[in-house]
Amino acid sequence: MKLKILYTLALALFYSCSEDYATNIKQESDVESTTIDNEWSDNPYKLNIVYFVPNDMSPVPDYESRIEEIIFDAQDFFASNLDRAGFGRTSFGLDIKSDGKLNIITVPGQQGKNAYPYSGGGGVIVNELNTYFNENPEEKKSEHTLVLLPSTSGDPLNPGGVPFYGYGRYCFALDYEYLDKQYLGEDSNLGNLATKWIGGLVHELGHGLNAPHNIGRKTVKSTLGTALMGTGNGTYGKSPTFITAAHAAVFANSQTFSSDTRSDWYSKETANISNLKGKVENNKIIISGNFTSSGTVATINVWHDPYPATANNEDYDALSFTSKPVGQDSLYIESPLDDFHKLDGQYQLRIGFIHENGSRVIRAYEYEFVNNVPNIEVINTKNLIDRSSWSIVEADSEEDNGPASGMLDGDLSSFWHTQWKSTLPGHPHHFVLDMGAETTVKGFAFENRSGLNGTIKDFEMFKSNDGENWTSLGTYSLARVQNIQYIDLPSVQSFRYMKLVTQNSHGDFDYTHLAEIHAYNN
Ligand code: ZN
Q1: In angstroms, what is the span from residue 172 Cα to ligand 1's centroid?
Q2: Residue 11: its pLDDT value, please?
Q3: Which of 293, 310, 318, 351 has the fewest other C-beta atoms within 10 Å?
Q4: Residue 166 C-alpha to ligand 1 middle, in angstroms?
């Protein structure tokens, strides 16, 4: 233990002191033991570092020492940021060999470099790695894997050609001759390349460790710089770059950062929100409400994402905030408007429940800034009308396991699904809802199942009191999201039957489906 603390000190000093001093300390450690420990060696799960070599390529010379230095540096970067966010010096565990070196698992590819292009190559590699880890289960130390490939561009001053992104718990980066920490921050061609590809590596690693994109709060820009999971891949090592508090919370509740051994890492959890309320007070958006969850929620994050996303911007500008649950079942999160980079246009609000086992459940809502003021009240939970006397009296098409009655049972996993197995009838599809008696309705609420391909897009609703003579209530659109969507009618109206007729579905599928339909009167 004493030795470990000593080395911890040495490691910490390594990054701020001269090479000579660090070397001296290392030698001192070597005298006492051959095992040099890493500050996070006690973490039960270690990030897998894979060097994947297509069968017509060779590793780039000295890859092990160059990559080790970059990864150790990144480990410390995460630790300082989690420390600032209140989680202590917490970072991802790494597998350290008995000689003190980082264990980089060098995996020979089954195929040549052309089989692993930027686009689509990641999936091919993941398949081969799954096979590799099945055959060598002792080498897999966690669910998280960083994969490096030698650049296939043939030009070390213009590397590329291989997968470079993160998804699921995999992330991909590239290696080239000058991928070396010594160039990081240097005002030179090699320095710019180093920021691009080392900063890129650390950004993709953030994805592989569960983080989506986000942008830093406006008020911390001058002190903390650029968020790693925003455009920090272009600033890492060159100008101040940081991990936002919301993402520090995501990492702190992920497998390789944890000191907990548990069998249910990432097993699926559910979370539902009730009494959701949004308001603006003291120049802050305040989101509050209650929730229930199948597991223990450690952190609740919100992202305010300018929306709809443009093709080349996506969620990079999603502003994030984090909070702890209040008691067992409540949420309360403040988002100061001074932190917003833009006070106009549409936003998507995402509320994320980060569970102790790393599982994340995200609920999404839309709102809009009008004259610099967010109409956040639109997220408020509606008074849903009791459905006990409701029934679906007609549907044009139902698959065996997708009866229309599934829209009224309060269970998102049972849903109306039009036929697709033996026949595949196309749009328009329709169903008729009978509310049992004339009912006063302000609007209808819709919830999709988790699989969003084929969810209803454009549709028309009709009303009737006899189920025979119909009057249009107008045409509407639903978004391709799973959260509850409220559709206000042009005015509050009373009627007994509602007929919904689809025009198309998201993804232009012939089939469509819907998990739940409600009505509200407030
Ligand atoms: Zn990214």
Answers
A1: 11
A2: 35
A3: 310
A4: 7
**If you compute the radius of gyration of the chain from its CA atoms, what whole number of angstroms results?**
27
Q: Ligand 1 center to residue 244 CA distance, Å? A: 14
Q: How close is the Cα of 59 to the center of ligand 1, in Å?
A: 25
According to DSSP, residue 102 is labeled: B
Whole-prediction pTM:
0.77
Which of these, 237, 251, 514, 477, lies nearest to 395 by C-alpha position?
514
Check whether 19 has a pLDDT greater than 90.
no
Q: What is the mean pLDDT of residues 171-184?
A: 97
Residue partners of 99: CB distance under 8 A and separation at least 6: 34, 36
Whether CATH 2.30.30.40 fits 271-379:
no
What residues does CATH 3.40.390 cover in the chain?
A: 2-18+44-257
C-alpha–C-alpha distance, residues 215 and 305, integer Å: 9
Contact 226, 232 (CB under 8 A): yes
Omega before residue 108 within 30° of 0, cis: no
Cα-to-centroid distance, 214 and ligand 1 (Å)? 9
Ligand 1 centre distance from Cα of residue 240 (Å):
18
Question: Tens digits of per-residue pLDDT, 447-485?
Answer: 999 888 999 999 999 999 999 999 999 999 999 887 789
- How close is the Cα of 66 to the center of ligand 1, in Å? 23
Q: What is the CATH number of domain 391-520?
A: 2.60.120.260
| Rounded-to-integer distance, Cα 186 and Cα 195, Å | 9
Identify the pLDDT of residue 327: 96
- Residue intervals of the chain classified under CATH 2.60.120.260 are 391-520
Per-residue pLDDT at 420: 95
Tokens coding 259: 């000191």
Higher pLDDT residue, 36 or 39? 39
Which burial class, exposed, middle or buried, applies to 120 when counting CB atoms under 10 A from its CB (0-12, 13-18, 19+)?
exposed
How do beta strands 471-477 and 458-464 pair? Answer: antiparallel
